[in-house]
Design brief:
Layout (H helix, E strand, L loop, with lengths): L1 H26 L12 E4 L2 E4 L19 E4 L2 E5 L10 E3 L6 E4 L3 E5 L16 E4 L5 E6 L4 E6 L5 E2 L8 E2 L8 E6 L4 E6 L4 E7 L2 E4 L5 E3 L5 E3 L7 E3 L13 E4 L1 E3 L5 H39 L1
Antiparallel strand pairs: 1-4, 2-3, 5-21, 6-20, 7-8, 7-11, 7-16, 9-10, 10-12, 13-14, 14-15, 16-19, 17-18
Helix pairs in contact: 1-2
Length: 301
């Protein structure tokens, strides 16, 4: 009976985690750039039990299965990888700081380390990856040298291909800047008040995970590399910093919608709830069987 309890406990834990993943997907139905999480299961372990004395051995009487009896220990969630191959719908917003990714890739972000330290420190603990392109400009710098930094809603800096924050105000003064253009190849340009377009020498960096489970969710639709991961991502930009051969392009003034299919998630939610109910009923039946076995033992003694 203890074996049954262990199996049911593992199954209930896996079902609860699956339910949490489904609820997380449903909660992010309208989150820009959100990639739905999938659920993968695996067996916990198997025990090999000896056959009863005098039982058939392998090869006897046409038996093709191996000896012993394989008894499973239940199932578990082996991972919740991103369904990153699915492209979300592109919705135009008109905001010049909204960037949609069409194709593979993630934006690279970095937090400001300390109040007096320049953004762009090298601590990997402060590096994040996201597909949510709802950015805005943060006014910083000094009165004599004002700058605009491209940041996300949490204040993390969007990085270029040189691992530096995307900043406006160095090449062309802000007083002479009419608009900021970002090309589909990720190049950052400035349209000045004289109607001329000036390059900033910066291109927004896009990275692709080398495998689906290389990134760990940190909330706010942002991810980090797994601890100890060295080659978990690769740069999609070419040697010139452009997206010319990657098959990915940036769309300014638009956002990528979530890839969550609400119909699929609601179906999965009902399946998980039904599964948990059946497991709870099985546990109750196992407890009743244990009680009957104890009662028989008392009466026979």
């Amino acid at each position: 009976m203890e074996r049954i309890s262990i199996q049911l406990r593992h199954a209930l834990q896996a079902s609860r985690q699956a339910l949490d993943t489904t609820a997380h997907n449903i909660a992010n139905t309208d989150t820009p750039g959100y990639k739905a999480r999938d659920i993968t299961f695996s067996n916990v372990y198997y025990d090999l039990l000896n056959n009863q004395p005098g039982g058939e051995q392998a090869g006897e009487n046409g038996r093709v299965t191996p000896e012993y009896i394989r008894v499973g220990g239940g199932s578990r969630i082996s991972g919740t990888p991103l369904i990153s191959e699915t492209q979300g719908n592109i919705v135009e917003t008109g905001a010049p700081t909204h960037l949609a990714l069409e194709g593979r890739g993630f934006f690279k972000l970095r937090e400001w380390l300390t109040g007096g330290e320049q953004a762009g420190g090298q601590a990997e603990d402060n590096v994040y990856y996201t597909r949510a392109g709802s950015f805005h400009w943060s006014a910083e710098g000094t009165a004599g040298d004002p700058r605009l930094y491209l940041v996300d809603a949490s204040g993390r800096y969007v990085l270029d291909t040189n691992d530096q924050p995307v900043v406006i105000g160095g090449v062309v003064p802000l007083s002479m800047t009419r608009s900021i253009l970002i090309t589909p190849e990720s190049e950052v340009l400035i349209q000045a008040t004289d109607d001329r377009v000036y390059p900033t020498g910066q291109s927004i960096a896009l990275y692709e995970p080398t495998r689906p489970d290389a990134l760990l969710s940190r909330g706010d639709n942002a991810f980090q590399l797994l601890p100890g991961e060295i080659n978990g991502v690769r740069l999609l930009n070419d040697a010139n910093g452009l997206l010319t051969t990657s098959g990915t392009r940036l769309i300014q003034g638009a956002l990528e919608r979530s890839t969550v299919d609400l119909t699929v998630e609601m179906t999965r939610l009902l399946e998980n709830e039904r599964h948990i109910q059946l497991l709870a009923r099985n546990w109750q039946m196992a407890d009743q069987m244990a009680g009957l076995a104890n009662e028989i033992g008392r009466r026979s003694s």
